[in-house]
Amino acid sequence: MRRKSKGFIFIAVLFSLTLLLTAATAFAWFARAESKREAARENILKCRSVAETAAEIVGERIAADRNGYDGFDEPLYAPGGSIRFRIGEYAVTVRITPLGGKMPLNALLLPDRVTVREEYKNAWNAIWEEAGHEELAQRVIDFMDADGSQKLGGAEDENNINRPVADLCELKAVPGVDDDLLWGGRERPGGAARYLEALDGQKININVAEAEMIAKLDPGITIDTARLVAASRLSSPLKSIEDLRRVPGFPAALATKLANVIGYESAFFMLETNVTAGSGTAARNYRITMRRTENKCIIEKWEE
After folding, report:
1. Into how many domains does the chain fold?
2. For residue 6, is pLDDT > 60?
3. Is residue 13 domain-resident?
4. Whole-model pTM?
5. By the 8 A CB rule, do 113 and 294 touch?
6. Of 18, 83, 35, nearest to 271 (Cα)?
7. Percent of the chain residues topping a pLDDT of 90
8. pLDDT for res 9
9. In this predicted model, which residue has the larger pLDDT, 70 or 277?
């Protein structure tokens, strides 16, 4: 009996030791995993702080750029170019893109938020015609205008926001507007978003607008003329109506007609920012939209 008792005790001790070892191993794995998660959270917070500091530094350079225009021929905004510097142990790379080359959706209507701006009518209709859904031109206007009266060809609906659009994604609440129509697919690269942006700017920066956007502003601007504008601005940036009139083939009368919707500078800038702390630490990427005021830049939108 004593031998059996000793055997049972030995087995019980082994079982207890196995449980303790298993628990200790599980706790060690948990502690290690928790430590990694905490390190990851700390890295995220530190990288975010570095990105904010980088935005301030780059924002100062943008604010100091007061040469009367913003274009891709400037070293600060050169396509494929970037700014590289270090903040403490972090390496930062920032690529700056002047925005404002698309039609500002919230400038489509006059201050009464009901009347469509005459200078934008042609471009607005042409955008939806290219998308193959001309009927959406009026529906989208009813969707975001301030009144409840249905426009000819439009539609008033309880889902209408009847206010300025905060993000282009809101347009998907309009019946007939989906991701493919808005963002494009194989058959429609770029979609309607190729020509629209939900920023508060009032004018299209002619120095960064695509030729296709310029051609949509008026029937008097052919795609060939628009491409000539895009090519000539690289060697001779546009700073005024007089500069635009000097572009060969550009109708001089249109420069005056479109003066209220054509600009030469950008109010908003996209900062594509990469922050890296070194080997073994995950890099973080940010898309930061900056708004330039009279003498400084402030963060308008943050994506990560």
Report:
1. 1
2. no
3. yes
4. 0.84
5. no
6. 83
7. 69
8. 66
9. 70
289 beta partners: 270, 301
Mind listing the pLDDT tens digit for each residue in 237-286? Answer: 999 999 999 998 899 899 999 999 999 999 999 999 999 987 667 889 99
- The boundaries of the domain holding residue 10 are 2-99+267-303
Element spanning 302, H or E: strand 297-303
Helices (H), 65-191: 121-130, 136-144, 179-183
In sequence order, what are the beta bridge partners of 94?
Answer: 83, 273
The answer to whether position 64 is within a domain reads yes
DSSP H stretches of helix in the chain? 2-64, 121-130, 136-144, 179-183, 211-216, 223-232, 241-245, 252-257
Is the Cβ–Cβ distance between 173 and 142 less than 8 Å? Answer: no
71: tokens are: 């274009």
Whether the Cβ atoms of residue 209 and residue 123 lie closer than 8 Å to each other: no
- Is the model's pLDDT at 20 over the cut of 80? no
Backbone angles phi, psi at 289, to 5 degrees: -95, 125
In a domain, 149, yes or no: no
Rounded CA gap, 3 and 150, in Å?
A: 96
- 239 belongs to a structural domain: no
